[in-house]
Amino acid sequence: MANSGEAVKAAPWRDPSARPYVEIERVTKSFGDFKAVDDVSLKIYKGEIFCLLGASGCGKTTLLRMLGGFETPTSGRILIDGEDMTGVPPYERPVNMMFQSYALFPHMNVEQNVAFGLKQDGVPKAQIVERVATMLELVKLGGFGKRKPHQLSGGQKQRVALARSLVKRPKLLLLDEPLGALDKKLREHTQFELIGLQDKLGVTFLVVTHDQEEAMTLASRIGVMDHGEIVQAGTPSEIYEFPSSKFVADFVGSVNIFEGKLLEDEPEYVRIGSEELGGTLYVSHGISAAPEAVVWAAVRPEKIFMSTSQPEVDTGGSGQATDNLVRGIVQDIAYLGDLSIYLVKLPTGKVVRVTQPNTSRHAESITWDQQVYLTWDSSSPVVVTR
Amino acid sequence: MNHRRSFFILTCLAFGFAFLYVPILSMVVFSFNASKLVTVWDSANSPTLKWYAALLHNEEILDAAWISLKVAVMNASGAVILGTLAGFGLARFSQFRGRFTLNAMTTAPLVMPEVITGLSLLLLFVALEQGIGWPAGRGITTMTIGHMTFSMAYVTVVVQSRMATFDTALEEAAMDLGCRPVKVFFLITLPIIFPAILSGWLLAFTLSWDDLVISSFTSGPGSSTLPMVVFSKVRLGVSPEINVLATITIAVVTMMIVGVSLWMARAEKIGKAVA
Amino acid sequence: MGISGRGLVVALPYLWLVLFFVVPFVIVLKISFSDVDLAIPPYKPLIDWVGQNALAIRINFNNYAFLFTDSLYISAFLNSIKVAFISTILCLLIGYPIAYGIARSTPTTRNILLLLVVLPFWTSLLLRVYAWIGLLKANGVINNVLIWLGVIHEPITMLYTPFAMYVGIVYSYLPFLILPLYANLEKMDWQLLEAAEDLGCRPWQAFYKITLPLSRNGVLAGSMLVFIPAVGEFVIPALLGGPNALMIGRVLWDEFFSNRAWPVASAVAILLLILLVPFMMWYQSVQARESAGTR
């Protein structure tokens, strides 16, 4: 979904010869005994929108602040456009930050706020006036120059903060939970505006958020963080469809995880026997795991098909008729308008989450306590070994 | 209990405020009493402004007031500089060498009996004079120094508590945009906490203007402040000119407080609207 | 901001206070050990040349001995503590309901009431104490009103009595108790009381079990702000207390100005300081706890 410019469409992170724009080299930040950021390495490329996604306390904000110069790494290096910026203070970095609380100077009007950074750089007055005016137009705050922050709405304040941090054309823009304070509709609208702005200006963005929907919408790539480490970095679809661990699978979107043992391990398929499931899963791709290893199969709710009559299962290849098929009773239904969430209780006691789009207005709906059959494609489960 | 306003509390409030204000109001009322006895109402000749006129010609009181004014202004301005630095430092820097001592030194004057502070300051000035020849005798300079020492403690408290609610993101944002720390203080922090600094100035001014004990210890011949003159008069009993002085003081203080409160309420409303 | 930058910011106030606040106490201590002299200044130096090559340090404990043996000083200390303590209790009894009432009012009423509490605080203490002279004296307002109402026929002696002194101290220090107590009560979560009442607690019980314990820091802070300065109070005993009101602040003043006995006055100051330092430290720890709680 992220439309982050031509350079990024070429997926430079896959090209070993591409030069990263921002390089975080084995950075650790300790506060006493506590490691807020633990040996993190990351390469961010020019023009990307990179999102650090994680729960509170995972270290994403600390990492962001180190990039901004507000904290110094305990060990490791930070390079921006090839230059070592590790100990450089914030006022000497080509990096700007958009603060979560916007931090607009209350005693200055909008124009003065936006012009502040340019004044510090000693830019000639005429140029300042021009650049400020252009930037305000860009964020659609054309006539608001003389207003003071307390006279603005939340969304308007955010745009001023954005304008203020972008007017200096920084090499890297850091955004700390940019959409957290906005209500849902405004959030959606602003997400697309942000992407458009970034595309136009070609600035590299680093966004920190705990909202995975935000990350999925904005990012060209996401880095999922947990306990100070980056557990997986990749494009939104990579993260969602190919999570590398239970944690990531569970963190981004909802997922059903079935613990099981490898019954058959072949290059083209594996079969997993799961007590939780009360059946077997046939997965049409090979994985690397030790024999008899405990593995987890993650199946997304939207990839499970639910029907009231026994379906015909596509066993594909060496699958059996009993693979990828279970029965259960509908325990709970949540109607969300565009889709419905069903919680289906299996005979083993495990509750499976299934989502179905409400494609028809008068569909014969599945109701509570109804017996249903659940099935899924052999390509749907993701097998993770941790 | 929001709507059930306790009868007990209301009576307490009523009596409490009556207790606070009856003496003040009685002083005001009797400033218009023609009788020299002050508290015996002379209905034949009152109310009158004759004591107001008398006060305006009382050289002793006017001279003392002028000295008090000079000392108070110098004291307030100096205390504000010292107190803002101390308050800012204590609030912003969670650790530095001597933090404990500085904290103790800025809280002690708030509670210490003034006789102790006054005595110690005088002895210091005497010892200094003996040792290095300065200050030569006591007067306005020594009084100002004495007042500044305890006033700055109050200013520190005011500034420190304002800084506690100050959004550090504002300072970080300024630095992020290229501003060096010292400039950040003058361009961003200071303008925003200005109302607190102003109230600190007013507080220091008032403390100095009203001070008796420390002034008595640190003053010299010919540098009597207004409270010192009032005290010597009051020791002998009531005096109508003092009532007049009190009334004028109360009027000025009231106007100032109401004015500053309204202004600060407006500034707070603006400040609150910012994210 | 680098460590050196921090040091510079606080250096100025720090040095000022060391020079004009701490050093003076050292000097007071030194002089408390010296002899009285008929000279200017009226004390003999501590370290003196004796002959050509010898220095003699003269440390005289007489001043302290004098204070401990003369009953006047002991009673003055004890009386000061007693007066300050009773005044603190009275301030609490009068001031707590006021602070509570203000904290429970609607925002607009609250601001007006606060203004009304603060206004006397900004008016000179001297003048406010003077007001009580006018009220309490033999032909003062109170006596005149009572006689006029027929309640009494002879004026009651109120001025120059311990009673007048208590009235004066409570009156002057009341705002000092109300303001920190109010600041503490204002932060209270009133829903706690509602929860208590919902669970069956009667209003007075709720106050006793919830409000009072939670306002402990405010009560202590306010009490210290009254007690500690009241012990050494001079103006009020001098103007309202009469000759029998023996307060240590007044003793210090008289020793210094009337008797020119600087060393004795210094000794009094040191003893008073030693007496009050534990309370000051208690106050500081209460303040630290309070601000830690709000962070």
Textual characterization of the structure:
The complex is a heterotrimer of chains A (386), B (275) and C (295). By secondary structure, chain A is an alpha+beta fold. Chain A folds into 2 domains: 5-94 and 170-246, P-loop containing nucleotide triphosphate hydrolases (Rossmann fold); 254-308 and 315-384, OB fold (Dihydrolipoamide Acetyltransferase, E2P) (Beta Barrel), CATH 2.40.50.140. Chain A has helices spanning 5-9, 60-68, 110-120, 125-138, 154-166, 184-201, 212-218, 236-241, 246-251, and strands spanning 22-31, 34-44, 49-53, 75-80, 83-84, 95-98, 172-176, 204-209, 221-226, 229-234, 256-265, 270-274, 279-283, 294-299, 304-307, 325-335, 339-345, 351-357, 371-376, 382-384. In chain A, the strands form 4 sheets. Chain A has a 6-stranded mixed beta sheet with strand order 6-7-8-3-9-10, sandwiched between helices. A 5-stranded antiparallel beta sheet of chain A has the order 13-12-11-14-20. A 5-stranded antiparallel beta sheet of chain A has the order 15-19-16-17-18, with no helix packed on it. In chain A, a hairpin with a 3-residue loop joins strand 16 and strand 17. In chain A, helix 3 (110-120) packs across helix 4, helix 3 runs parallel beside helix 5 (154-166) and helix 4 (125-138) crosses helix 5 (154-166). Chain B has 275 residues and is mostly helical. Chain B has a domain at 64-237: MetI-like (MetI-like fold). Chain B contains 11 helices and no strands. The mean pLDDT of chain B is 88. By secondary structure, chain C is mainly alpha-helical. Chain C has a single domain (61-294), classed as MetI-like fold. Chain C contains 13 helices and 2 strands. Chain C has a two-stranded antiparallel ribbon with strand order 1-2. In chain C, a hairpin with a 3-residue loop joins strand 1 (47-50) and strand 2. The mean pLDDT of chain C is 86. Chains in contact: A-B, B-C. At the A-B interface, strand 6, helix 3 and helix 5 of A face helix 7, helix 8 and helix 11 of B.
